[in-house]
Target: Acyl-CoA synthetase (NDP forming)
Amino acid sequence: MYGQGLSPSAYAGSMENYPAGWEADVVLRDGGTAHLRPIVPADAEALSRMHEAQSPESVYLRFFAPLPRLPKRDLERFVNVDHHDRVALIMLIGDDIIGVGRFDKISATSAEVAFNIADAHQGRGIGSILLEHLAAAARESGIRKFTAEVLPQNRSMLQVFQAAGYEVTRGFDDGVVAVNFDIDPTTRSIEVQASREHRAEALSVRTVLHPTSVVVIGASRKRNSTGHLLIRNITAAKFTGDLWVVHPEADQIAGVQAYRTLEDLPGTADLAVIAVPAESATEVVQECAAHGVKAVLVISSGFAETGDEGAELQRRMVATSRAYGMRVVGPNSFGLVNEAADVSLNASLAPFLPDSGSLGLFSQSGALGTALLSAAKNRGLGISTFVSAGNRADMSGNDVLQYWEEDPDTKTVGLYLESIGNPRKFSRIARRVSRVKPIIVIKSDLTGRELPPGHIVRTSSLAPNTLDQVLGQAGVIRADTIHQLFDLAQVFSTQSLPAGRRVGVIGNSAAMATLLVQRSRSEGLHVEAEPVSLHPEVDAERFRTELDAMYARDDIDSVIVTFTPSAGAEEAEIAAHLSEAAARSQKTTVACFLGIHGVKDELTTYLTDDEGARVSRTVPSYVGPEDAVWALARATDYSRWRAADHGRFLEIEDLDDKGVRSIIESALSDARPGTPVRLERSDTRALLSCYGIEVLPYITAASVEEGLAAAEEIGYPVALKAVTNVLRHRMELGGVRLNIDSPEELREDFTAIQRIIRQVIGDSDPLVDVQTMAPHGVPCVIRAGEDPLLGPLLSFSLAGDTTELLGDVSHRVAPLTDREAGDMIKSIKASPRLFGYRGLPPMNIDPLGNVLERLSVLVERHPQIRELVIHPMVATETEGHVLSARIDLLLDPTRIDSTRRLLS
Model:
């Protein structure tokens, strides 16, 4: 019974060569979910059922002939495949097959592909998803081209091929359209996939957050029970849709009519809120699926956060829900909220809510849900939507980000994340969302080293600041605390984005003005104008005059106002004028009214917008100057990031991916899963050459005579380097000798290096590289490869022990734009050495950037590259030289965000 969460991978040992890694839960075009997996012999009955339910027209379009039933011989052939030369993938909802995609290999590098989509499910994007997954499976088998024969009237199938983003060619012969296309990912196919994924996932979240009917299952008649509280909260929020309760005995709970079963409801519920014991959750989810429920919110605890047994209950519940087309929020969720006037839903455990506003909140912690909502209410910040993911077993921050990107009611996004199951996907989505809406993430472990109970993610061995840099690359703003999140949200929710870094400071305390100036400069803001320090007992008129003068200045982008209680002006009067002046000027403003309470209303003013609507503008006020400056500085950083030119992705013609694939496949031909393979040095040079990266020539010698001959061939001066990794880059240990310009010097140095190799590692036949001597410059280290957590990652640093000891390394995820490559180089603390430090000539960093961009494309396209290290690449005044490189490969790539759509 696969539809009950038991997929073939659960007993794959009985099925030879079953590729369990091809299984996936996917989101369809309309936001529903389905399960995709390879076909197995036990699917024969379900396949027959699907075929016999098809219309005669659909059967004819697939088989080019009337075929009311599948002949037994054909049926057996369809369900018995080898998962290599003959592959078939099926998509299921419950126990019903709703789509089939298959390919049959017709040559070493090409295969014929065919699809069959159930009539009742056509138009849901099933063919496009099957094509993505078939192409990924085919590439694993070395297939690079798909062909298909399609009847001209089968326009929907022809559209699937055409719209996939591949370069499709067509031919017409004997009444049939022959379609051919390469299946290697292209820029266009990747864009198409991301766009479809975005639309589908955004719609699936909208289904959860915009229900027209809600049913609460598991509510008790006891007032202090979870279910009872949920019903009271939904009722108190004046939910605009229908609210029902399922209880086997009660007639009503909390004033809401109760029904004995889901079957007794007067309609179909869009959202089921489940508060039953964990052991009963899967059964309840199955009942929901049987009655057409679209999504479930699981408040119940007792799942993965309790241990292995609970984790299995959680897995079965989620698998069942997805298999029947439903999304899951939770389990162990605090609930969800949608403040939109046409929804007004509080399906949470919060007894209070902030006002309606423009801040979207997401929390992985149920316990912190109350804290987030309470903080927003206390600050006077309105929210648009709130989602507590609990154990994040299904719906994640990635999903909700997809929704918020499109949601007109959400202007700012706040996330509390304890872990990120798919950081690469998060970074990819956040890059896009940050260009239109600020994203604030409360700092937590995130890398998976100290996971909270119930959270399952991969871990990374990289430095803790790596993910900070990756999220910074995506424009995400990091906050250490809930306090900081709302400090910053106040600016984004109430003010225009700062136009620049120039700040003006005004207040009635010289000491406070000095603190603000010092803090602003330390946070990267520019205080070029003298602060206006008024007398502590300044009157309101003088303060107003000076404030208006500051807003009128052209050399100030933002204003910081501080005011302390005194015998002079009334704080309420100052606050009222400040809010009006700030609203008129449109300059970003933050305030610090020290020791003053009760001016919140005066800090808000009302204006009429261009459409004649009355809108409020509030100046955010902070309890301390540090908070005000920090929030303004981060808002300014974001504004500058958003306005910046982020560059262009590399588009070059001299990339030989076929050559790279040939080298990789040959090297991995005898590899074992999970065991890294070190590429031969000659193959490393050849692979890099396929991407236009040339290693400075060298010849490996085993004796002094061979070394002398190599030097004569290369030409003096030369460098000598121990081949062994222990000594190769260790000049201080004698493993490297430079600027050798005569045979006599070479003989002496070669002998010395061989002697050291014998002493250090005991090699009786030590090898030494004789290499062209590179011009003087700055040696750098570039790394690229597949991180288990972040996917294809690049790192840059200067060579040397100091860099390693201090961790002065920049990191970015692929793909890289030209600007991002340049930023990588400039962002390390030691970068001044490349730009004329202490009178040295500046180096040409363009070759470094070019290599970073090329490697970005290389590791993006070839996930088998576990680690590629260029150590060193020497940057000179005019060019760059790669002196040494090594590559480790892995037969089974670890990438979790791949060229096929799946829920993760």
User: Anything to note?
Assistant: The longest strand covers residues 865-875. The first helix runs from residue 44 to 53.
